[in-house]
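Homework help board

Subject: predicted structure for assignment chain

Our instructor gave us this sequence and asked us to write out the predicted structure in token form, then describe one feature. I got the tokens but I'm not sure how to describe them. Can anyone check?
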Amino acid sequence: MRVKSVFITGASSGLGLELAKLYKSKGWRVGACARRADVLNMLKEKYGFETYAVDVVDRDQMSQAIEDFSKEGLDLVIANAGKSYEKKTRLPNFSVGRELIDINLLGVMNTFEPAVNKMLEQNHGQLAAISSIAALNGLPGVSAYSASKAAVAKLCESLGLDLARENISVTCIFPGFIDTPLTQKNPHPMPSMISVEEAANKVYEGISKKKRKVFFPFKFTMMVRILALLPRSIYAKIMSMKKFNYSLEE
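My token output:
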């Protein structure tokens, strides 16, 4: 019986690394993609991943990496690589915003494109992308992050409709706060934060069930989903309250 194969971007730390470890423990063949070759070499030796030192914004390199990995089959691709703001500011930083769009949105497209080509060829497969609960509402101080994650959500929704008859399923993940090196830098409260191990298990479960959308943790993401249903004028009044904007820098 052929071993199942998964290719994961942003796999050198945080949720991506935890997912790579989890899938490896389940007997999957794991392709781990990230920018840092030194870290990937260590992970390859420690966990037995097949590693690819590639930046997701480089379309050609991503295509080559996935084409190489998929020679032995490709059952699942998880577009996990992403970036957020290091500082939240009241006035937009468009330079940082463009970088976020490149990584968070175009990086997903660069990952999905060669994967879809392979999955169409073999007539099966699954795509998954890590969006964010920030996709549901425009949040103060993180305009391009919210926009990029919302675009990922709609990209997945559309692809799920387009590719269903090709036997390719699409799952979009909407996590709340996860305890990772990125969130540990945040200077503001992060309600209902969960461990990276718990988050990886939630992602694994949702993907295994081929859910179109996966939200966690339940109570916090439900609250944010309710906010998304409010008239935007009411939402704006709520979010303009000082307790939601105290951490923004000028």
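Reply (TA_rk): Your tokens look well-formed. For the description, you could write something like this. The mean pLDDT is 92. That's the kind of observation they're looking for.
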